[in-house]
Amino acid sequence: MSTILFSLNTSFLLNLLGLSFHRIHFMSILICLEGMMLTLYLMMSSITSTMNIPTTTMLPILLLTLSACEASTGLALMVATSRTHGTDHMKTLNLLKC
After folding, report:
1. 20 to 30 Å CA-CA from 58: which of 13, 38, 86, 95?
2. Is residue 98 in a domain?
3. pLDDT reported for residue 1
4. CA–CA–CA angle 64, 44, 13 (5° rounding)
5. Which residues cross the membrane (predicted)?
């Protein structure tokens, strides 16, 4: 395994650990998810550049587009929950309340 792929795998795992262990604020969850998506984008773009298959060149751009949509939706949800609940702490959110 090359050093670039090793560092990208390590970055993905660190973001995954941050997502699973640091669930205090909604913003930290969104940052960990965005880091995971950007790491996946870098992995996919490095793998497609080494393979030289023309059908896989569109996949990194599609993933980057989907991650931008995910980030905007997450920020909109964070603004909506901070307006209704007054904070972005995950302990104050109750999923059973409508």
Report:
1. 13
2. no
3. 62
4. 90
5. 24-44, 56-80
